[in-house]
Amino acid sequence: MKYIESNNHIEELFKNPWYQVLLNTFSSVISYTHDFYKEKKIKPVIFPITTGSISSPMGEGSDSLPVKVNIRGQDVFLADSMQFSLEIGTRLTEKGCYYIMPSFRGEDVDERHLNEFFHSEAEIKGNLNDVMKIIQEYILYLSTRFLSEYKDTITSICGVEHILELVNNPKNHFIQIPYKTALEELKSVNDAVSKDNFGNLIITKYGEKELIRRYGDFCWLTELPTKIVPFYQASEENDFETAKAADLLAGIGEVVGCGERCTSAQDLLKSLDFHKVSIDDYKWYYDMKNICPLQTAGFGMGIERFILWLYQHDDIRDCMLLIRNHKQLNFP
Q1: In the prediction, which pLDDT does 237 show?
Q2: 153 vs 171: CA distance, rounded Å
Q3: Cα–Cα distance between 330 and 231 in angstroms, integer?
Q4: Closest residue by Cα to residue 216 from 264, 263, 165
Q5: Which of 35, 87, 159, 275 could form a disulfide with 231 if both were Cys (CB 3.0 to 4.6 A apart)?
């Protein structure tokens, strides 16, 4: 299967059977996700898609561009993630909460990025290890359900060997690779390592693909440098060298990002200062941690990226039912 580029998307939508498969797959991800969290007694929530506090501000550790809109004369952002809202929700629930909703990013669309994609996010009471365990269980749950209920469809598109390998041999997956180790391993691989706008070494999409080749799908990139993660992630011993954060790699690259949050208001202030991010738009976040300090951890999974792995495809632009390219707004 190759990237579908058409001058008449509405015609392609009804002619190409892929789009019916895609709609059914999204539908099942939603259903399976609700079933998974119901067993965990983690509550579904819904939140507004507008925010005054983006989770990837333009400071060190930011990995996306915000989308600003003007509503009746007031500038707001379309949420790039609803993690902050989930942190509020977790303080009002027994174990945590989750949602599946759209997220908005300002980067140009390419084979790995969409301007509007769908996020399966959750926040729980607990630490980084707790949330990594839930993520692994979630990935295995989704994979097992799809193997059971979509076997014929997946077989006709790409085969099911990759799913069987994951489900039958989970101990061969979820290997943890410390970031420093990964950098050392990748230093001789062309284009695997680059520098961000602040001069920090980062692993590129080519580096991620190489790690997947070496360690298999759903391998963890752990012990991320604090400088390359957003300010809300906790730092080991507050030394601001290593963050309590990890990325899960499969298919085209990162599928899940997760982390443990700063627990106290004072830890948050130190992290904001370290990342050179003003507290002005995050005063409420500081107040929340001051009024109700709580150890939480959370994650976000790009549903389209999981679908790419599921169908062994390599272009996320084929995972749009309705085109939402900021340079090409289409129906309806």
Answers
A1: 78
A2: 27
A3: 35
A4: 165
A5: 275
Tell me which residue of 274, 170, 174, 287 sits closest to 221, measured CA to CA. Answer: 174
| 240 compared with 145, residue with greater pLDDT | 145
Distances (CA, A) of 175 to 127, 179, 220: 19, 13, 6
Rg of the chain over all Cα atoms, to the nearest angstrom: 20
The tokens for 275 are 């990342």
Please state the φ and ψ torsions of residue 32, each to the nearest 5 degrees.
-65, -35
How far is Cα 86 from Cα 79, in angstroms, rounded to an integer?
Answer: 12
21 three-state secondary structure: helix
pLDDT digits (tens, 9 = 90+) for 147-164: 999 999 999 999 999 999
- State the residue for tokens 């995050």: 282
The two three-digit tokens of residue 77, written as one number: 């952002």
Please say whether the beta carbons of 254 and 112 come within 8 A. Answer: no
Q: Mean pLDDT over residues 44-64, rounded?
A: 80
Give mean pLDDT, residues 67-72: 91
The answer for residues whose C-beta is within 8 angstroms of residue 133's C-beta and 6 or more apart is none
Domain boundaries, the chain: 9-329
Token pair belonging to 74: 């007031």
Highest CATH level, class, for 9-329 = alpha beta
